[in-house]
Amino acid sequence: MSFYPPRRTLMGPGPSDVNPRITNAMARPTIGHLDPAFIELMEQLKGLLQYAFQTDNALTLPVSAPGSAGMETCFVNLMQPGDKAIICQNGVFGGRMKENVTRLGGEAVMVEDEWGTAVDLDKVRQAIAEHPDARVLAFVHAETSTGVRSDAEALCRLASEAGMLSIMDTVTGLGGIEVAVDAWGADAVYSGSQKCLSCTPGLSPVTISERAAEVIRSRTHPVQSWFLDLNLVMGYWGGGESGGGKRAYHHTAPINALYGLHEALTILKEEGLEASFARHRLNHEALKAGLEAIGLSLVVAEADRLPQLNLVSVPEAVDEAAVRSMLLNDYNLEIGAGLGALAGKVWRIGLMGYASNPTNVRLCLGALQHALVAQGLNVNGAVRAADAVYTAAGI
Length: 395
Ligand SMILES: *Cc1c(COP(=O)(O)O)cnc(C)c1O
Known about the structure:
binds pyridoxal-5'-phosphate
């Protein structure tokens, strides 16, 4: 029997709603991965990714695996056994970075900040002063587990001033907030297809600066992951020095998934980066107004909030899991639960990419209000408060 998934509205931490233009693109005929038409698609994809990342980096490509593989690609290529990395952790994903470093035989120096707060630049300065021999400074630009944005520009500058390579996780940032790879001087940056790009999961856009590409080319110790070794992947994608040259088989590219990413990036370019960022901000403002109208508050300090991932504090006496179940069962609406220390205390409401629109904001607010009323709270006016924000913005 065929599998038919339910139709949901995805307003959690990702995947986000996929634009039907993307799934339609993915249904087009599969061709060979060295077909001249496919090579042309690969070239266009590189250009579209350069646009999204705001970079001229020649080594810009989608890794054929999810965001976690983009993370691993950056660590295993930039670091060798014995290398030291300073890792900023203010949520789930910094912990994974540490795993990557220790598993490749490196040493991780952790700079920890409380979940729900941004990376503290002073702590990073201190760690750099104490560990000037570190090769890498790694951080999460947009922490999906907490809805926090850290100052990526400042962190990249701290890394380059100290002669270190920066590794930036912007899986949830790309397409939703400013990601200016060249202007910030970021060295190795990875993202994901299923957050603000609103594509299906399973691809990880990566971009590598010329400085970092040179480090990769001149390694003395082979990258321990054959599949993620960019020296080999470059041979297929024609990035870096071999740009435009002959392409050799490395692995079979996920052809149809790449049609989808191409369409997702085309949609982003049609809208324009600035317009996309503004749309994410506006829908976040409307959601916030609606939440506040029914007594719900955002946890993260205003200056550090991600518009695409809203950490909402669950009021005392409200059963947070029951609310999520009601949203899923009665509204086909998915929102996220809290992770780690935040489990049971927060909801995570995503407004990512295609899912960041007024219809979804109203749906979510109406559903949340209904769920709170069902739990005995006396609240109303959520959608009206959001509408006031849209009206003020001329929508
Ligand atoms: C989702 C996410 C990842 C992992 O991406 P997958 O596609 O799930 O492997 C890494 N970092 C951040 C910040 C994320 O939000």
